[in-house]
Amino acid sequence: MSKKINLEHPRDQITKIISRIYQRGMTTTSGGNISIIDEQGDIWVTPSAIDKGSLRASDIICVKKDGTIIGKHKPSSEFPFHKAIYEARPDIKSVIHAHPPALVSFSIVRQIPNTNIISQAKHVCGPIGYAEYRLPGSEDLGDVIADEFKKGYKAIIMENHGTVLGGSDLTDAFERFEALEFCARTILYGSQIGTPNYLTDAQTEEFEAQATSVLPEMKVTEYPSDEVEKRAEICKIVKRSCQQGLMIGSYGTVSMRWKDNDFLITPTGINRWDLELDDVVQIKDGHREAGKKPSRATWIHQEIYKNNPKINSIIMTQSPYLMAFGVTNSYLNVRTIPESWIFLQDIHAVKYGTHFKHNNNSDIVENCATALIIENDSVIITGDKLLQTFDYLEVAEFSAKSIVLGHSLGEMVPINDEQVEDLRIKFLT
Predict the structure, then answer these.
(1) CATH of the domain at 275
(2) What's the confidence (pLDDT) of residue 158?
(3) Helix 386-406 and helix 225-243: axis angle, to 10°?
(4) Domain count, the chain
(5) CA–CA separation, 408 vs 411, rounded Å?
(6) pLDDT tens profile 117-140
(7) Strand partners, 156
(8) Backbone angles phi, psi at 264, to 5 degrees
(9) Which of 142, 174, 253, 414 is the most exposed place for a label (fewest CB within 10 A)?
């Protein structure tokens, strides 16, 4: 699938992405800056000391190639290192700098997060550089950062400062930023309940090698009204998942059964934040919609639908607190509050690679549970209506979060067997 051409003006791209970063709690009102260099060599950049929570396109500054500044504000005080990155790396067309809490945690202990904590992050982030501390806004800081980018890095941990990332466009930079912060959060949360385990390079390469278009193409595709309605539901839930921090732009698969064993599923290679109805892929009679690449996980969604007729929707995603359990081999006991047990009962985990087509997948496919964790990869949530499945995901993530946060207070005391039996009688019979 060819990459979408982004015809949004740089001003609009920047305001959209800074809004996402702010709303997700990955920068403060005054912190962080974003820039784009256009084909003329002009740099569009966020302004200095303007509220990131209400930034408008008219607030974005243009620094022309000749140094002329156009706009009603001053450009970001960190503009010098943005400029230095573009000069050092002509392939970089957008830069994001921010102070997201988890990456700042690594910054202040002077460590680099290991992106082999989850399957796709190494591919999305690439190797991570490290820039020693220099005075913010100084030419010296620009030199230090540019030197790291010259080594080929696109993601840098800034000592006692935060992070800076580059990309071939702003979407590429944001995916890298979001994935790296997710890795940092997962490692931090996992470290509170156990010891994080990491994938080998060979395992991450195996994930990337999975074929995305092995199904034959349909010759003709029809789009009746009920099919289009399901596309809209999928897009709505995917964007809501991103907004709620339950999915990141570079990873996450959502599907809905359409009729019989035919279904609709999200594509690969499309940022989840930007998913549109036409991006969703129809799978019918074992064939895929022509010209589209469905998720790598399409085959396992197909097998779940075939073997579990009561399941009509599936969400396969990464959320940080659930993945804290998924990277530490810790058991997630959902006997926390009545709602969690009623909805989920038990959440088991399967080994990494169980979700690959050539391996034994019976633990995932046969008698598929409401929630299942794949170690160092994802969580699979299943249900009837898609909104119900999303609710199960939220409940599972909230349960995991409560346990992680409560760990510092003492050992969890679960609902006992007698109380569980009362719940079973009242709500499940």
Answers:
(1) 3.40.225.10
(2) 96
(3) 10
(4) 2
(5) 8
(6) 999 999 999 999 999 999 998 989
(7) 129, 164
(8) -115, 140
(9) 414
